[in-house]
Amino acid sequence: MNALAQMGMVSDFPRDNQKALTSTESGIVQKDYFIERDGEQFAGHHLLVDFWGAKNLDDPEIIEKSLRDAAVAAGATILHGHFHHFTPNGGVSGVLVLAESHISIHTWPERSFAAVDVFMCGACDPLKTLPVMQSCFKADRINDSFLRRGRVLTGV
User: Fold this and answer.
1) Closest to 68 in 3D by CA, of 45, 94, 107, 35
2) Could you give the CA distance from residue 152 to residue 156 in angstroms, rounded to a whole number?
3) What is the DSSP letter of 51?
4) Are 81 and 8 in contact (CB under 8 A)?
5) pLDDT tens across 112-147, in order?
6) Catalytic machinery residues
7) What are phi and psi for residue 70, nearest 5 degrees?
8) Which residues does the Swiss-Prot or TrEMBL record annotate as the active site (predicted)?
9) Is the pLDDT of residue 150 over 90?
């Protein structure tokens, strides 16, 4: 097993799915991770998800696998993960650091509730994380919000 895999890292570089920009001053080609959609430019999509009536909320290994599978489904590059189990049968807090941003979770098994935060830039699609996470958490109800973060204002 290589050193990156031992640290929970899948890759040390983001996937090659971003558009290239060339600086006219330097001639250097750089990747641009801002998104252009519907005539807007913005840093990324931020998906906030509440899972109610959820299961599998007290096992950090199950939760980490679900979030890793969700990140891959969304097209993200996993850099590092850290998950903490508070007490036996207690909640879990964790984060996957992605080249394209992050996925974090906080669970309350005693309330059958999990709060998940998915922020991704570039060509990733955070909405593709939902069915993967739902297959793990089997929630009775899901509430979500989908935001564009870092909007570039033009004409201001």
Assistant:
1) 94
2) 10
3) E
4) yes
5) 999 999 999 888 999 999 999 999 999 999 999 999
6) 101, 106, 121
7) -65, -40
8) 101 (schiff-base intermediate with substrate), 106 (proton acceptor), 121 (proton donor)
9) no
More confident residue, 19 or 58: 58
Report which residue type is found at 36: E
Between these two residues, 2 and 69, which has the higher pLDDT value?
A: 69
Q: Could you tell me if 100 and 12 are in contact, meaning their C-beta atoms sit under 8 angstroms apart?
A: no
What 3-state DSSP class applies to 71?
Answer: helix
pLDDT reading at 148 higher than 90: no
Euclidean distance between CA atoms 116 and 126, whole angstroms: 11
Query: Which structure tokens are listed for 44?
Result: 């990324």
Residue given tokens 């890793």 in the structure block? 68
The one-letter code for the residue type at 93 is S
Give the tens place of pLDDT for each residue, 58-86: 999 999 999 999 999 999 999 999 999 99
DSSP-derived secondary structure for 90-147: --EEEEEEETTEEEEEEEEGGGTEEEEEEEE-TT--GGGHHHHHHHHH--SEEEEEEE
Cβ atoms 45, 146 nearer than 8 A:
yes
